[in-house]
Amino acid sequence: MKVIRLSTFLDYGGIESKMVKIAGRDSQDVEFIYVSLGRGGEAERKIKSKGRRVICLGIDHRIPSLAAIVGLCKLFKTEKPDVVHCAGAEANFHGVVASKLMGVKSIVVEEIGIPAQSRVAKSVFSLLYSVSSCVVVESRYVARYLRAFYRNSKFRLKVVNNFIEPPGVRAKNLQGKGVKKFLSVSRLEPVKGIDKVLYAFARLREEGFCFKYDVVGSGSQESYLSELVGQLGLIGFVELHGFKNNVEDFYQSSDFFILNSVSEGASNSLLEALAYGLPSITTEVGSAEDLVRGEANGWLVKSNDSEEVYKSIKLALKLDSDTYFMMSKYSIESIQTGFSFQDYLDALRKIYLSTS
């Protein structure tokens, strides 16, 4: 079965990281071809290094783009895919249109976040979803949102959990640690709410708590957040590391994970943090409700609620070693069922076969 995985870019980011992970595993009877409308980059290089086919069209991806539709039509005519699986707004729009024009039988669109659309865009995507074979999302949260957002549209919707390769680590222990270490792996954009986390840590610093907060990622707020660290007197307590290709060392050396997004589809970094045994403080968005359960492996907080973020970090700072160990143990256990690559591939194969 030949499947074209179409995304807007193949440089860096959540969906790009996912494509790299898929490329590194045996997909058995499914041949994935990785295609981007726009530029390639880090993800492109990594996928190629694994011996997989990558095609970066390098064309205008802005909706609507005649060049993108024509380019995809030519590609589909040459490749004759059994399935076109798109992810992201630009890829979904142009991928569906081109697939319909070329008679592709199975068209799967993947919504990777929470759409914020104008009335016209909402109508357009409602139609695109309705003529697609299936709409895939990574969490029940996004599924409920889409059903409500496109309430007058009829489309087939499936939840397919993201996957992770368990790193094989043991539960962490706080014994002998003087300073608790917190971590965020995130794009530095307003929707991620990193500044609110910094304000919470500033309050805790004034109360005499010691901690270390590492932030890995880049984005439009990088300069703003760097200045805010200085203004809040957090130099030496908070470090912005910028974009890193490999973040395993940060997961291994940290004690807690923080995700303060206002909007989220399904967080790869949250899944990874739990796999490394990090109890997590996360807003009630995206897949968090499926992953963080009560105070067993972390704390769920309301989005845009700085006070709850502050209180949860304070609870983490005051956590005793025995309780922490049990939370770390359950963090690892919480993603061991239903989040393997085989679970992911089996779910996709069922969708592809049922729609082709």
Textual characterization of the structure:
With 356 residues, this protein is an alpha/beta fold. It has two domains: 2-163 and 340-355, Glycogen Phosphorylase B (Rossmann fold, 3-Layer(aba) Sandwich); 180-333, 3-Layer(aba) Sandwich (Rossmann fold), CATH 3.40.50.2000. The chain is 42% helix and 17% strand. The chain has helices at residues 14-23, 42-49, 66-79, 89-101, 119-131, 140-149, 194-206, 222-231, 248-253, 268-275, 288-291, 306-317, 321-333, 341-355; strands at 2-7, 31-36, 54-56, 83-87, 106-110, 134-137, 157-159, 180-185, 211-216, 238-242, 256-259, 280-283, 298-301. It has a seven-stranded parallel β-sheet, sandwiched between helices. Strands 10-9-8-11-12-13 form a six-stranded parallel β-sheet, with helices on both faces. β12 (280-283), α11 (288-291) and β13 form a beta-alpha-beta unit. The chain is elongated. The model has no long low-confidence stretch (mean pLDDT 93). InterPro entries: Glyco_trans_1 (IPR001296), Glyco_trans_4-like_N (IPR028098). It is an enzyme of class 2 (transferase).
Which features characterize this protein?
14 helices; Rossmann fold; 356 residues; 2 domains; elongated; 13 strands; alpha/beta; 17% strand
Any idea what the radius of gyration is?
21 Å
How many independent structural domains? 2
Q: State the separation between the terminal residues, measured CA to CA.
A: 10 Å
Poorly predicted spans: none
